[in-house]
Amino acid sequence: MNLSLTRRLALGLLAGAALVASPALAQDFPTRVIKMVVPYPAGGPTDVIARIVAEEMGKDLGQNVIVENLAGASGAVGTRAVARAEPDGYTIVFGNNQTHGNNMFLLKDPGYDAVKDFAPLAGAGAFEHVFVVSNDLPVKTIPELIALAKKEPGKLNYGSTGVGSGSHLATELFMTRTGIKMTHVPFRGAAPLVTELMAGRIDVSNSTLPSVLAQFQAGQMRAIGIASPKRNPQAPDVPTLREQGVTDADAESWAAFFAPAKTPQPVLDKLSKTIIAILNKPDVKERITKLGFTLNVRDPEAFKPYLAKEIQTWADVIKAANIKTVEGN
């Protein structure tokens, strides 16, 4: 047998082995603990939803799924760690429009490419945004907030969960639509923002509904308008921006699960199928919906065009608002 024939035979055997191994890989996976990275501090709505899903994944896959909070740099620290992780399915991330969209335009060097470095596993849905104000602020409606902000431009401060976060860009969009100016105060996640808002050190925030729902229901802050086409069933008494005369300022912050891009397809398929099934479980849907999160489960093929459209939408907002890039360390 000549060398060329031997080489061709060896290559053929390797290819055949790969075809046999792929189904076996999915069948055997996982054989150890899976780590789900949340690129924000513990206690926020993203963290809570991740933990609900991780708990169910552990039951369905027969291996523990632990949540690790790696906050910093507007979510880039944790997201970067997953992009650089071994692409074997044992490290995934619960990302959002900030980590897998806005950071590409707002951070000088996020350390990853949100599209090329990741494979979507499942789109989960979106956080609707609601305007909340400190109880010390003398406003009870969106028109009253606008009037106060116009009276002394820049005096009011608004909090967000970081530069490039949904709460940041949604507020910039609102200011563009209403012609007002407020001063931005970014935080490292929802928990510290909510603490400062309740203490009266922050005037207003266009926060995700889950991050402030319990607090305004308890009277610790005041909700004055929701940035969605219709009222949310978890907060039926809060009128929409549209009802109060502000149009084209609706905003939502989507969330989705991702794995490193080079993860074997059989493993991606198993993770995707598992997560989608969990998000569709009636008890899980009830638990997550009660947080104020709007579920809209998408498989990877349905999520990809949605992701592309969302990236372009918020890139346009960033450009229109003339938001400058910052360091991504």
Automatic annotation (TrEMBL):
SUPFAM superfamilies recorded: Periplasmic binding protein-like II (SSF53850)
Pfam families hit by this protein: TctC (PF03401)
Entries under InterPro entries matching the protein: BUG, Bug_dom1
Coiled-coil regions, chain positions: none
Domain of life: Bacteria
Record's signal peptide: 1-26
Keywords assigned: Signal
Assigned protein family: Belongs to the UPF0065 (bug) family.
PANTHER family recorded: BLR1237 PROTEIN, TRICARBOXYLATE-BINDING PROTEIN
Protein name as annotated: Tripartite tricarboxylate transporter substrate binding protein
Species this protein is from: Microvirga thermotolerans
